[in-house]
Design goal:
The protein has about 170 residues and is mostly helical. Helix content is about 65%, strand content about 0%. The chain has 5 helices and no strands. Helix 3 packs antiparallel against helix 4 and helix 4 crosses helix 5.
Amino acid sequence: MSERPPRSLHEAALAAGVLAIGALLAFGALSISAEAGYGGVGPNFLPWVVSAALLVCGALLLWQALSGGFRDREAPSGAAHGDWVALAWVSAGVLVTAALITRIGFVLACALCFTLAVRGLRGAEGRPAGGMTQTLIDAATGVAIALPVFWLFSKLLAINLPNLSGTTWL
């Protein structure tokens, strides 16, 4: 008979957290209208699917945690400590975007988010963040990614995103 590894309180806590998020999402889905819309499903369909998936995953995680621990888990990779400077750059990208998206529009806000996040991720890899030339290349790449997304949502799907020009082109 093989010896089981000890149960991990951290693994059980993670599983309980996934279960709690699934339960909270299900509770929130109760307040969303179930009236069928386009395609025969209501606006509460996706929250119910996601909450069910989270509850199933949380239950499986809890079962594994209580029956000997997570199995076939690889050793963690990366540095022993987090890179706080890289985290600050990525967080700044998200927070600045949230603060400015209604003022400068979707495209420029997303380009700014991309630029700041890429700078942080390069630093996390130990690569140089780059100078002004690299920053301009990152910003242009961000615009090149955000423009088609903006046009897809505004032109094809008729979803109003914050824009800079008052039109659905920029």
